[in-house]
Amino acid sequence: MERRILRWGMVGGDLNAFIGDVHRKACAMNENAVLVCGSFSRRADRNQAVGMHYGLDPERVYPDYETMAAQEAAREDGIDWVSICTPNDSHYPIAKAFLERGIHVYCEKPLTFTVEQAEELKALAEEKGLLFGVNYSHSGNVMVHEARELVRSGAIGELINVNCEYFQEYLVDDIGNQDTEMLQLSSWRKDPEISGGSNCVGDICSHIEHTVSFITGMKLKRVCALLDTYGQPLDLNANILVEFENGCHGVFASSQVCIGHMNGLVVRLFGTKGAIEWVQEEPNTLKLTKKGQPTQILNRGMGYISPAAAGMERLPFGHPEGLYEAFANMYRAFTYAVLKKVNGEELTREDLDFPNVDDGIRGVRFITASLKSSRNGAVWTEV
Ligand SMILES: NC(=O)c1ccc[n+]([C@@H]2O[C@H](COP(=O)([O-])OP(=O)(O)OC[C@H]3O[C@@H](n4cnc5c(N)ncnc54)[C@H](O)[C@@H]3O)[C@@H](O)[C@H]2O)c1
């Protein structure tokens, strides 16, 4: 394939933003694309200072995303894709603006507020023949790919139960307290106008939903959810029973008020022949237990890792890989597909092996169904 350095732009990701910074650094690890433009802040007056910090041509630092989409689409050397790293409320209008201008999109999760918005974006991307990646970043981890390879190979047999958690403690002071908003980073997560209908489920349980479906291929059929708000406008704690289309059952528990936990995503998959456990805070290992045998700890970087997963590794064994590498792997898959598109080449199924707009839609369906279930008294609700 002909290789040229791709050009990309970013919306969101001001100097003090969390995830935009990870996108920029992780994308740079692939050395196949250069950030050429952006609209980094909701505050138009901040953009030039940010652009200067990133070494951008001031002409390509825009006061807002609409101007950026219009002007980049009109340039001969316009961007090949845009990454959307803003809070949840703006994903839909920003993605729509760039798709309408014929620009590929890579967007943060949760994709949109409503299922209808997400489906509209899918229809638009299809109509324009554009790629649409959604940053469910945990599926960029090598050992998550290894878990998928193990499930596909039948190593744990038929899946019979799933038990996952995503526990954080950082909002515990919100319980019974109305004055904490300014104390925490990213307080927009607690604001329904910006975050959407959910905080905890949308922000973190959505990662469980995607990581499980990525590893197992199983899709959710219905949920029975009990969400706790502790007097706040949005949920801070969620206990959700789930049923997949194939009849497998499970539990997704997520919380922002669990003392002792920082970013504790744990995925446990139980099959008829074995079990797998992956812990996000120890991403370089994977627990595999085959029926009747002692538990094995598989390490990234070792010769026994499947070629599909090992092909994603960036460092030799014993040198930890983490969040940046997972994001970089997501970008490697997405940008490879963008480059093929730019070159006018046919894309294969393998080229499209990154979370896409369909995953984004499923995520919004999951959040919507969980909210509805809880509102109705924790009744089973179709996803
Ligand atoms: N995939 C992951 O692992 C992961 C992790 C964290 C956050 N996220 C998602 O990333 C998104 C951003 O989260 P964050 O923690 O970085 O938030 P943040 O508040 O730290 O940063 C958001 C940035 O977007 C900018 N912004 C807001 N509206 C804008 C607009 N209209 N135009 C230009 N810039 C605008 C803000 O000025 C800020 O710089 C959220 O949707 C969140 O769910 C994903």
What would you note in describing this structure?
- By secondary structure, the chain is of the alpha/beta class.
- The chain folds into two domains: 6-137 and 327-356, NAD(P)-binding Rossmann-like Domain (Rossmann fold, 3-Layer(aba) Sandwich), CATH 3.40.50.720; 139-316 and 363-382, Dihydrodipicolinate Reductase, domain 2, CATH 3.30.360.
- The protein has helices at residues 19-28, 47-53, 65-74, 91-100, 115-128, 142-153, 192-195, 200-216, 307-310, 323-342, 357-375; strands at residues 6-12, 33-39, 81-85, 104-107, 132-134, 159-167, 220-228, 237-244, 249-255, 264-271, 274-279, 285-290, 296-299, 381-382.
Q: Which helices and strands, and how do they pair?
A:
Layout: E1 6-12, H1 19-28, E2 33-39, H2 47-53, H3 65-74, E3 81-85, H4 91-100, E4 104-107, H5 115-128, E5 132-134, H6 142-153, E6 159-167, H7 192-195, H8 200-216, E7 220-228, E8 237-244, E9 249-255, E10 264-271, E11 274-279, E12 285-290, E13 296-299, H9 307-310, H10 323-342, H11 357-375, E14 381-382
Parallel strand pairs: 1-2, 1-3, 3-4, 4-5, 6-9
Antiparallel strand pairs: 6-10, 7-8, 7-14, 8-9, 10-11, 11-12, 12-13
Helix pairs in contact: 1-10, 4-5, 5-11, 6-8, 8-11
Bound molecules: nicotinamide-adenine-dinucleotide.
Nicotinamide-adenine-dinucleotide is lined by residues 11-14, 17-20, 39-42, 65, 85-88, 90, 108-109, 135, 137, 186, 188, 203.
